[in-house]
């Protein structure tokens, strides 16, 4: 518990509010100035309350211990440290609030774009699936056409052989005189072409 002579009840919260107001109004004011003001305020209160300005206050050994300069100095250092910590905390909170505000603004700007791009992706996926199905159908059609073309080539080759064999049988059935053998060989060559 704080000594009654050095602990004013009301000014304890006032520096926090003052610090907030000063940080919000003037962000360039350093926290050291705030701490210095608080330190001077606390010291003046301690001097006015416990240093003999009140003649009715009796002096005793317990009051002397409370007013020990080292103890007062330590108490003031602790209060200053606490005040610095509070100021840092307020600055940190303020920075977080600014960060949240800027991030919310960025989200509100980017969310329509994300929605548009997501819709565009879905449309492209549908188009991609349709193209894949078309490619599969065309590939299957090509396989059928290649097989049909191979069958036609085999049929053409078979018909050529049949035609050649029929021409040979015709030539065998009608054996022309020996002088016409030269003409038959030229006819045979023409037929093969």
UniProtKB/TrEMBL annotation:
GO biological process, one term: positive regulation of DNA-templated transcription
Region feature (Disordered): 43-68, 167-193
Alphabetical UniProt keywords: Nucleus, Transcription, Transcription regulation
Gene Ontology cellular component annotations, sorted alphabetically: nucleus
UniProt GO MF annotations: DNA binding; DNA-binding transcription factor activity
Subcellular location: Nucleus
SMART domains in the record: BRLZ
Domain of life from the UniProt record: Eukaryota
BZIP domain: residues covered: 68-117
Assembly and binders: Forms heterodimers with BZIP18, BZIP43 and VIP1/BZIP51.
Name of the featured protein: BZIP domain-containing protein
